[in-house]
Amino acid sequence: MAVKKASLMVTFTKEEKRIINQMERFIDTDLSKNYIGDTHGLDLTFFFFTFFSDNYSEKIIQEIKRRYEKAGWIVNVERDDYKGDRIELS
Length: 90
Description:
The protein contains 4 helices and 3 strands, in the order H-H-E-H-H-E-E. Helix content is 53%, strand content 13%.
């Protein structure tokens, strides 16, 4: 039987889980300090370069997006090779 696409998107390695959890803590801390009731953006490229040597995947970004949408946030992820990747929460 062929592997189901959905099952591949929810399987994470230990390293990916660690990155996701650390990223969530980073975003939560930043929101706690800087959110003023409007859209709040964070530079994902800076985050990953600083903590993980730019080692991340679309699967990680989608998991972060899923978690914050589940928590009631509107999430927009902008991928840009020139400006860098960014996540906006409102």
